[in-house]
Write a structure and sequence with these properties.
elongated; single chain; 9 strands; alpha+beta; 203 residues; 6-stranded mixed sheet
């Protein structure tokens, strides 16, 4: 579906939000934390506290570069969807005067994030939100170990100093093609072909 990117982000946001809002330790420290799709800088500027779930990269899934058309019904072929891998930077944000020990609370939030996706490496069923709700979509969430140089470049692009964060790769997210289905009757009977070899006369 064309809204797969938005549905993926909304699904991950709701999964994390449920974790943070059900954590009794966090609820005692400050009002219910939020999970935002804004960058860490935008979230800080808005005075929000919680988690920045920022999608910073989209790449095509290299394992499905040559996927064949999908058969629909008996005699129709549907163009394959565009398979994508999404990369999210997850950063705990403590903004404003919330009266809590910032480093300790950031690490507590990060622990909750890591635990959530460790226990739910495959998000499906009732955990799906947005346009994915009620579908058979499955989203795989994998913790990435980025080299320091790469993650530093990400923070340089945000023009702010490095913060405690982790990166997750989410796959495979599919964007459907808008091209119409084509005719493609299935093969009913496969007949083998035999080659005939000829031997040239020797001189």
């Amino acid at each position: 579906m064309i809204t797969a990117l938005r549905a993926t982000s909304e699904t991950l946001r709701q999964v994390l939000l449920a974790t943070l809002q059900s954590d009794p330790n966090l609820s005692l420290l400050f009002p219910p934390a939020t999970v935002s799709l804004l960058t860490p800088d935008e979230m800080t500027s808005n005075g929000q506290t919680g988690v920045s779930l920022w999608r910073y990269r989209i790449v095509r899934d290299e394992n499905r570069l040559n996927a064949p058309p999908q058969r629909v019904g008996f005699d129709r072929l549907r163009p394959p969807p565009l398979p994508l891998r999404l990369h999210y930077l997850v950063t705990p944000i403590i903004s404003g005067d919330v009266g809590v020990p910032v480093p300790e609370t950031e690490q507590h939030i990060m622990g909750a994030v890591l635990q959530t996706f460790y226990e739910n490496p495959l998000v499906f069923g009732s955990l799906l939100s947005g346009d994915f709700a009620g579908t058979a979509v499955e989203i795989a969430v994998r913790l990435e170990s980025l080299p320091l140089e790469e993650i530093t470049r990400i923070w340089d692009s945000l023009e702010r100093s490095y913060q405690l964060c982790v990166s997750y790769e989410v796959s495979v997210v599919e964007i459907d093609s808008s091209r119409p289905d084509s005719a493609g009757p299935p093969v009913v009977i496969a007949l083998p072909e035999f080659g005939i070899a000829t031997v040239g006369a020797s001189a």
